Amino acid sequence: APLGLDRYHRRYWWGMGGARGTVYIEADDGCWAKLTTIDELDDLWDSLDKRGVREAELIENLDKQYPAIAKSMKASNVTTLHAPLKRQQVKRMKRHVQLSYLSGDLLSRRLHHGMKGII
Q1: For burial by CB atoms within 10 Å, which of 4, 18, 46, 47 has the most?
Q2: How far apart, in Å, do the first and last CA atoms of the chain sit?
Q3: What is the pTM of this model?
């Protein structure tokens, strides 16, 4: 089950396929994005409005899971930083930096303009 939905009806998933260091974002049109750092997770947190029904549930689930998600993200990023990288991995990392989480309307516009298949 997803962590919850935001005001744009995007679904937030954690632990998919054993990827505990990543929160995946699924838009209604099938586009995907991901959060892989604690800063990105905190940016998401700051952008949510607890007055909204969907976002209140997402906030509640993030409250419960935040310590485990943050710990997994920290461990994943340390492993990634210290592992030797192949040329293809560097290209993917550069692309991910360009496509990493953007809050609110900006993420919606990025998703809408063809980020399909980034994962």
Answers
A1: 4
A2: 19
A3: 0.66
